[in-house]
Amino acid sequence: GGAGLYYHLSYWGRPHDYLWLSTTQPGLIYNELCNAWEHSVRKLWIANVHDPKVAAYDLELFLDLAWNIDGVESENVGAHLRRWLATNFGEAVADTAYPAMRRFYGLTAKRRPEFMGWSQTELDKKRYGRGLSPVADTQFSFTEFGGEADRYIEEYLDILADVERAERLVDPSLADAWFAAVKYPVAAAANQAVKMLEAQRARACAVAGDTDGRDMAAARSQQAYQNLRALTYYYNDSLASGKWRGSMDMSPRNLPAMEAPALPVMLTDAEVSARLASAPARGRHPLDPDGVVGRDAEAFDDSHGEHRTVDMLGHSGRAVELAVGSSLTYRFTLPDTMQTPLLTIATIPTQPADGGTLRYAVSIDGGEPTVFDLKEPFRSERWKLNVLRGQALRTLSLPPMASGAHTLTVTALDPHIILDQWALDPLPNRKYYLLPITPNQ
């Protein structure tokens, strides 16, 4: 008789709410809804959405797929986003805004703005007040791979600058719609990243006794929080002459990640202004892979069987879904012998079909494969981490690998295996968040 679907464009619950912005990656929406359609879930589709204005694009994609599942192509999901921008704001705006919005959804796939506190909800209330863990340092590193935390901030600020350039091309009659659907989500997410990461830097500087570094980072974090308040005030009190007053809450449910930054020192407004006025221009932090060899899923050298690339999905932005029995092979060269290599495989978190397993096999140089199963117990801790990261990681310690040519092959043993990235690290114990993939690897 058919089945129904209830899809969360917004969500309340464990491991963490996302009730503020609507930042679900378009490729993830596409892939999940196509999966439902292919399993005859076609009778009734319901979207949970907290604010149709900030969710304007994600909701439109959901509705268009419900109307015509073949109207979006797997390998070019981004074309739908560009059409939406052009239809609503014009071709000139879309030319500038579309590349920025692709990058925006790429950053939110790596970490939703609501998840930047590295905290969780619905935990043991005997241990945590209201069942909420406090804000903790992120896993972003300020030192590894050229400074991935700074690089994350810089990319957000670059995206925001591009969105503001596009804004100058928006017809004045559409300014309110632009702010609600594009400008507010991008600017809010960017300032949330700055708020949290600069607060983390300030805490680290305080421990190291670096007073100047502490105060500069605190000033940037406090300013970002004030920017969030100003953006939200404008949304509620100035947008459309106050028509939407009260509709935007920058701290839904008053969760720790949405509060003022946790800082070792609080500066006055005058001190913040003085610090920022004397701040040097932000430097650039290009990626330094530091000996890591890795690839995005789509950069394979050989394939066997059926696979499809899903645009705007995963940290790579081009994750690859493998049919059962299909494989992807990557050829790579090690300049030096790796004595203690650690292989990390990143896939898109999915669920097994019909209660089965969710296995894939990994083989180095055609050797004996290692099998991983991604199936997780209900609400397991690793399931939570997968959701928060947007990736399911599996690691494999390998014996020494000599310099020279090698191959890695990933084979799907069950449905719903979607490969995102892999990396081979010569230093197995270093701490970082994002796999350091460079385009020329």
Short description:
With 441 residues, this protein is of the alpha+beta class. The protein contains nine helices and 13 strands.
Architecture blueprint of SSEs:
Blueprint: E1 4-8, H1 26-38, E2 44-48, H2 56-67, H3 78-89, H4 91-110, H5 148-167, H6 175-208, H7 211-237, H8 269-277, E3 293-296, E4 302-304, E5 307-311, E6 318-322, E7 327-334, E8 342-347, E9 359-364, E10 370-373, H9 381-389, E11 392-397, E12 404-412, E13 417-425
Parallel strand pairs: 1-2
Antiparallel strand pairs: 3-13, 4-7, 5-6, 6-13, 7-12, 8-11, 8-13, 9-10, 9-12
Helix pairs in contact: 1-2, 3-4, 4-5, 5-6, 6-7, 7-8
Structure description:
The structure is a single chain. The protein is α+β, with helices and mostly antiparallel strands and about 450 residues long. Helix content is about 35%, strand content about 15%. It is built from nine helices and 13 strands. Strands 3, 5, 6, 8, 11 and 13 form a six-stranded antiparallel β-sheet that branches. Strands 4-7-12-9-10 form a five-stranded antiparallel β-sheet, with no helix packed on it. A hairpin with a 5-residue loop joins strand 9 and strand 10 (about 370-375). Helix 1 packs parallel to helix 2 (about 55-65), helix 3 crosses helix 4 (about 90-110) and helix 7 (about 210-235) packs across helix 8. The longest helix has about 35 residues, at about 175-210. It is globular and about 65 Å long. The protein starts with a strand and ends in a 16-residue tail after the last strand.
